[in-house]
Amino acid sequence: MERFGGVWGMKECCRNFENYFAWGVGNGKEVLIWKDVWVGNEDLKSKFPRLFSLCCYKEGNLESCGEWINGSWKWKFVWTRDMFDWEKNQEVQLLQEVHGKVLVLD
Question: What are the tens digits of pLDDT across the range 37-51?
Answer without folding.
Answer: 988 899 999 999 999
